[in-house]
């Protein structure tokens, strides 16, 4: 806390310095001014919390100073010290929020009481301001989550439009009367090689950033709002309530903005215009279907419009689908790696020659292959990565390579020990929950193991302390946000699991050798 004493009489300033118990309130910075103009300069440079001021001074008197303080530093507490009881001197102290009015010559007890009263008031209000600031920060973090959940429920038919109508109008800019709407969906999987990898595979973080990009495009005309989906089949949902006839052009603008920002375009499913709000669920289904039934083999066009005639039951049967599955069974049973690779090559060539392969058809194909492999190797870990190239488009070649690698691993067996699996599960849990308050005890209880065993096994398998791994994970997430967003440091610190911005900055600097601001500035210089 800083204090300023303003009086043209030096002995008055010295008396105030002498009598007030500054050390009791840990006050070490005490400034002096002989008139209002000097006081203004010190206020602008040091911003003291408490001001003792005389009323009659040269150049600028106390009344003018009180008015200026009230306008520019409303939280500052003022104590007026004057040799006059005239109402014209008392009035400014009352009007401009003075905490006390003391008469000269100064009474030490009254001076100390007035000072302690001002200190107490300022400290109480400062605590309230900090609490309000923290609540606002929490609301800023929670408010987007509220809209994600509410709008996801709304388009899924699990929430009442009437309950959120006023909020949609007041907070999101939706017109009071809307006759039609359209729904668009974005799935992140098509951008796996570029956008999702840029955010270290974190779907939640990537969705958060991507929704912000969409809303930056939608905001000027308030045509709609993008939010993170809580429903299956999409990561980002765009509810478009204005200019629905121009929705396709709006999606092209959004895709261009994403391309300019991140160098990749997205696959976007777009519904037909429907009545609002009763057609919302149908529009959501249409947009999801247009994504699921897009032709993966098509290289042009990333905006996929809903077609009434869309829809087919499963993988195209104009190639020997069941025959290929049988060949795969035999090849895996034989354990002959060359035979397995020949089956994969033959299957890949057939896929590449198809006129149509939809997302839903391909997912069914993957599911059928997984089922075959599970029957052959029930203990094997069977998972498919996303088969997309550097442009975010489906790649038969990537699928061919991935399936060959998977078959080779299954044929060799899974040599992973129980401890390895436990540590891998812990790492996956940390990657998914790094933003939460995380303790060693919490992790131990989560995996039904003692704290000592958690720490020991993690260090034994990875060669790294668990706490260091979590810190490194959080710092890496923070780096990504610092480089790719304009979020404030306080927001970034909360998003990566630190409630205290200053503590986050210390951890970040200890890990990287740079403060978060220095790291962000360096990234800007590098990009430019």
TrEMBL record:
Keyword vocabulary terms for this entry: DNA-binding, Phosphoprotein, Transcription, Transcription regulation
An example Gene Ontology molecular-function term: sequence-specific DNA binding
A Gene Ontology biological process term: phosphorelay signal transduction system
Cross-referenced SUPFAM superfamilies: CheY-like, Homeodomain-like
CDD domains noted in UniProt: REC_YesN-like
Superkingdom of this protein's organism: Bacteria
Domain HTH araC/xylS-type, chain residue ranges per copy: 424-522
Residue span(s) of domain Response regulatory: 2-119
Annotated positions of the 4-aspartylphosphate modification: 54
InterPro entries: CheY-like_superfamily, Homeodomain-like_sf, HTH_AraC, HTH_AraC-typ_CS, Sig_transdc_resp-reg_receiver, Tscrpt_reg_AraC-type_HTH
Entries under Gene3D superfamilies matching the protein: 3.40.50.2300, Homeodomain-like (1.10.10.60)
Protein's name according to its UniProt entry: Response regulator
Organism expressing this protein natively: Paenibacillus sonchi
């Amino acid at each position: 806390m800083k204090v300023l004493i303003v009086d043209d009489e030096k002995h008055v300033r010295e008396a105030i310095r002498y009598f007030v118990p500054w050390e009791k309130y840990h006050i070490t910075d005490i400034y002096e001014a002989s008139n209002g103009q000097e006081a203004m300069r010190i206020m602008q440079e040091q911003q003291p919390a408490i001001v003792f001021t005389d009323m009659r001074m040269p150049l600028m008197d106390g009344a003018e100073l009180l008015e200026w303080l009230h306008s520019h530093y409303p939280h500052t507490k003022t104590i007026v010290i004057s040799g006059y009881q005239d109402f014209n001197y008392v009035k400014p102290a009352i009007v401009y929020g003075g905490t006390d009015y003391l008469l000269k010559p100064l009474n030490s007890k009254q001076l100390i009481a007035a000072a302690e009263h001002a200190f107490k008031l300022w400290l109480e209000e400062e605590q309230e301001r900090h609490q309000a600031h923290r609540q606002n920060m929490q609301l800023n973090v929670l408010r987007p989550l509220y809209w994600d959940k509410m709008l996801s429920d709304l388009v899924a038919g699990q929430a009442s439009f009437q309950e959120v109508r006023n909020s949609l109008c007041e907070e999101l800019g939706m017109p009071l009367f809307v006759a039609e709407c359209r729904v668009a969906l974005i799935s992140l999987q098509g951008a796996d090689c570029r956008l999702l990898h840029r955010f270290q595979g974190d779907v939640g973080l990537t969705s958060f950033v991507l929704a912000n990009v969409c809303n930056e495009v939608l905001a000027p005309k308030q045509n709609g709002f993008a939010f993170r989906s809580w429903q299956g089949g999409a990561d980002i949902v765009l509810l478009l309530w204005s200019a629905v006839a121009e929705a396709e052009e709006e999606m092209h603008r959004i895709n261009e903005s994403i391309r300019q920002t991140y160098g990749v375009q997205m696959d976007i499913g777009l519904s037909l215009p429907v009545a609002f709000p009763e057609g919302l669920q149908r529009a959501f289904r249409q947009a999801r279907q247009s994504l699921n039934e897009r032709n993966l083999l098509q290289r042009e066009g990333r905006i996929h419009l809903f077609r009434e005639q869309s829809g087919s039951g499963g993988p195209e049967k104009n190639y020997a689908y069941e025959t290929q599955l049988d060949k795969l069974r035999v090849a895996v049973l034989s354990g002959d790696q060359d035979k397995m690779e020949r089956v994969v090559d033959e299957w890949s060539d057939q896929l590449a020659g198809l006129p149509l392969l939809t997302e839903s058809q391909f997912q069914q194909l993957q599911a059928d292959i997984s089922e075959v492999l599970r029957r052959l190797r029930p203990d094997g870990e069977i998972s498919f990565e996303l088969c997309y190239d550097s442009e975010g488009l489906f790649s038969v070649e990537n699928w061919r390579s991935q399936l060959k690698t998977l078959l080779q691993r299954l044929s060799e067996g899974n040599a992973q020990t129980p401890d390895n699996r436990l540590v891998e599960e812990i790492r996956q849990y940390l990657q998914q929950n790094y933003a939460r308050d995380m303790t060693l005890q919490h992790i131990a209880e989560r995996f039904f193991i003692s704290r000592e065993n958690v720490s020991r096994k993690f260090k034994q398998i990875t060669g790294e302390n668990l706490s260091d791994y979590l810190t490194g994970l959080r710092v890496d997430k923070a780096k990504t946000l610092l480089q790719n967003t304009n979020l404030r440091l306080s927001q970034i610190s909360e998003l990566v699991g630190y409630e205290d911005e200053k503590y986050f900055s210390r951890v970040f600097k200890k890990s990287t050798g740079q403060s978060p601001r220095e790291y962000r500035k360096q990234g800007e210089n590098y990009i430019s």
